[in-house]
Amino acid sequence: MWKYVLKRIGLAIVTAFIILSVTFLLMKTLPFQMPIGTNNEKFSYFQNQVFLGYVYDYARANDAAGKLLWSYQDGANQWHYYYEVPAFTQYFKWLGNIITRWDWGTSRVISPNLSAIVIIGKRLPVSMLLNIISTLISVPLGIILGIIAALKKNKKTDHVISTLVMVLISIPSFILITFLLFLLCYKTGWLPSKWPSSLAPMKTRILAFIIPVASLSLGSIAGYCRFTRAELCEVMESDYLLLARTKGLTKRQAIIRHALRNAMVPIVPSILAEFLSIMGGSMILENLYGIPGIGSLFIEAINISKPDYNVLFVDMAVFTTFGLLAGVLLDISYGFIDPRIRMGAKK
User: Fold this and answer.
1) Quick check: helix, strand or coil at residue 77?
2) pTM: predicted TM-score of the whole model, two decimal places
3) Using the 8-state DSSP alphabet, how is residue 302 labeled?
4) pLDDT value at position 80?
């Protein structure tokens, strides 16, 4: 088992390295975007690029160096002519900067000259908190409703739950949050219409969680409910459960001791996959509600008129890491949930 775990972690690291390397080289083929701000801020940005090894700094124009990015005369009346370093040379510099200094570059637009890692670090906790709260709410509710629907199969309760599940699954989260904003904010005024600042009253900041958490949770609840119902119904019709009943177990004992335990094997690992899908779905939601998370940051960084490539790249790296980590945990979790499953075990 441990050999398999180490192998999966190693493959995830290699996969992440390949994805990020290809992404970095592709981004370097895009047209160079000038930083915004004053000339001093631009000068500081280019000096940092020179330090990182992404830009050449010449004291005079050098046509052999390629396309001139920017020229500037500093306070000491010394000229600086900046030329871009070839993409593959930048790539090896990028690897060295990450390994030696954990430096992923600086922001060009969103927070000029501020480290992209620092920007992500400020935004990540909000997104994680929203997704963790949504998961803690949606998992138990979804599983409980799925169990109720399975136990009441083809009865009125099952039909009502199944209908609500179909409706909620069919509605995208950004449509749902738009409806909730209209109903609970603009129509009634019960909740804040946008994410409050850190200086807002505690009550306002707590109320601000209701709309985004509800938008993220309702679809997940429906997904867990449908999956749990399907798995439990299949287990309840199996031969071994019928055998358990013939041995004298009551219906309740058979369901608790056998049906639920076996149905949970595919359900529990799906929580990780659902958490990842929530992370992806929160991009549009955060942008609509003005939440300062990594989802809205991705939209800001990919802005067509003012792209911020370094921030965008680190944001993509975070989502890639979450995706690969979820895949590893998903595979490993099967072996711990069901003792009969041992990944990589000898026959």
Assistant:
1) coil
2) 0.78
3) T
4) 93
